[in-house]
TrEMBL record:
<feature type="transmembrane region" description="Helical">
    <location>
        <begin position="30"/>
        <end position="51"/>
    </location>
</feature>
<keyword id="KW-0472">Membrane</keyword>
<feature type="transmembrane region" description="Helical">
    <location>
        <begin position="115"/>
        <end position="134"/>
    </location>
</feature>
<feature type="transmembrane region" description="Helical">
    <location>
        <begin position="180"/>
        <end position="198"/>
    </location>
</feature>
<feature type="transmembrane region" description="Helical">
    <location>
        <begin position="298"/>
        <end position="317"/>
    </location>
</feature>
<dbReference type="InterPro" id="IPR036259">
    <property type="entry name" value="MFS_trans_sf"/>
</dbReference>
<feature type="transmembrane region" description="Helical">
    <location>
        <begin position="271"/>
        <end position="291"/>
    </location>
</feature>
<feature type="domain" description="Cyclic nucleotide-binding">
    <location>
        <begin position="429"/>
        <end position="527"/>
    </location>
</feature>
<feature type="transmembrane region" description="Helical">
    <location>
        <begin position="235"/>
        <end position="259"/>
    </location>
</feature>
<feature type="transmembrane region" description="Helical">
    <location>
        <begin position="57"/>
        <end position="77"/>
    </location>
</feature>
<dbReference type="Pfam" id="PF00027">
    <property type="entry name" value="cNMP_binding"/>
</dbReference>
<feature type="transmembrane region" description="Helical">
    <location>
        <begin position="323"/>
        <end position="345"/>
    </location>
</feature>
<keyword id="KW-1003">Cell membrane</keyword>
<dbReference type="InterPro" id="IPR018488">
    <property type="entry name" value="cNMP-bd_CS"/>
</dbReference>
<dbReference type="InterPro" id="IPR011701">
    <property type="entry name" value="MFS"/>
</dbReference>
<dbReference type="Pfam" id="PF07690">
    <property type="entry name" value="MFS_1"/>
</dbReference>
<dbReference type="InterPro" id="IPR000595">
    <property type="entry name" value="cNMP-bd_dom"/>
</dbReference>
Amino acid sequence: MGVGTRDNLRDAAEAFSSNWRNRNLRRAQLGFLGAWTAEWAFTVGLGIVAYVDGGALAVGLVGLLRMLPSAVLAPLLSPFADRGRRERVLVIVSLLRGAATGGAAAVVALSGPVVVVYVLAVISTMAATLFRPAHSALLPTLSRTGHELASANVVRGLLDSVATLIGPLLAALLLALADVSAVFAVAAAASLWAALLLSRVRYETAPRPAAPRRNLLTEAAEGLRAVLRNGGLRLILGLAAAQSLTRGALTVFSVVVAIELLGIGESGAGTLMAAVGVGAVAGSLAASLLVGTARLGGWFAVGVALWGLPLALIGLFPGEAAALVLLALVGVGNALIDLAGFTLIGRLTPNDVMARVFGVLESLVAVSIGVGSMLASALIAWLGLQGALLTTGALCPVLAVLAWRRLRSLDRSVGDLDEDVELLQHVPMLRPLPLPAIEQIARAMEPVDLPEGATVFRQGDTGDRYYVIRAGSVDVVGDGRVVATLRRGDGFGEIALLRRTRRTATVVAREPVRLSSLTSERFGGIVLGYGPSAAAATEDVDGRLARFAPVTPPEAPVVEEPSPPESEERNS
């Protein structure tokens, strides 16, 4: 086994073990498993109800009506997840879904009006569209590095895949042994289990900039503007919309292909969707080997292409065995999208609007799924089932090829951000910050290049910036003596910012130096806004002030003698 393979396997093992060791991540991820098992089981059961009620056209129409209200409400409600604690939003959503699907089970069991089932399905779906944005915004808050966030998305992708397998399999089993009401009842129980798990998540919120509370429409528009301003986000969300359109078509194709093309009956629809789950589980395990890769954009393109190509091939090679294998490839594509797409969005989006950006994504997904289900029904009526499969299946592969070069450029920009984050995490007071906060610092820092002998600031100056050394070294001079030499990854300048005093020392470039600087407003808002980093900063400053307490503020000449122990005295 090669070194690279061993490294990938080690990264994959660490991805899963780190999520299991962290109680909050474990509860959040298992809550996601319960919620999405409920969603897939409910989707299969609802498809059967609609098909019995009105055939393929009814399946597509119900899919559209189910998604349109969700598309409108997802971005409008997502600001709630940016305002407060995101796990509380997830608990409320799961309780609503449990109540709605439980109500649908009762209506079917009592042979009540089918329209009531459709109304409850709309309510359940509206709640479901808020679940993923809040959960996606929660994961970066629980992560401290890009690698850890990618690991969390790999684990969630695997659980999503498991849910894609378990949900339809449960539906198929319950349809064979009982009826649709049993499917809906199990979906309700899974949603309530998710609510219980998520209610036990405990964490300290990441610092967010203070902002006046505005109405929901204004706050929702900020998420849309964040997407429109960022070309990378626009690209990823556009491809996600195309993939979701194909997913909506698949909810119709799975029922019609099972009953009309393959002749395997109603329970066969659950079997076909379970094949997607099998492929998704296998794909998620394979995707875990990509946690440390710098090619997430490229793998995202592959995942998008795999959502369409198998459908076209089913149209060309109809047959039960071929359909099961090809739909498993769709599941592999889904796993790649979960890893790459959600990680890239999390890395490109500021924390204070993250849930709203994921809300925009969920709205696009909801609209696209609804449109895809109606489009599939219309194409079946116009071109026949096989022609509809060929036409729909061509969309995603073509778009993936066209977007390849731009996605690879996104990989390079995220790689640059990783370098900045790694540099900042050398600073002890910044190390406790969660990933969104430290990325906020990385984006806000401004470059400063100085020649040898240049003064960064003088003892007695007003402190207005914090600095981190990117390359080179500086001498810290207090009361005429060199008290420390700082090098790459060291920070300085925080004493004056934290204590609201003048500079306690002079800092001079020992050689040509490259610095990154952060304004005092940004420094205070981020570092002091997060409890663990504020405590680390205070402890560090207290220790250094106890060792070095200058008595006179004026500048003193730089002494050229060798310094005492360098690394013992850190940042000024």
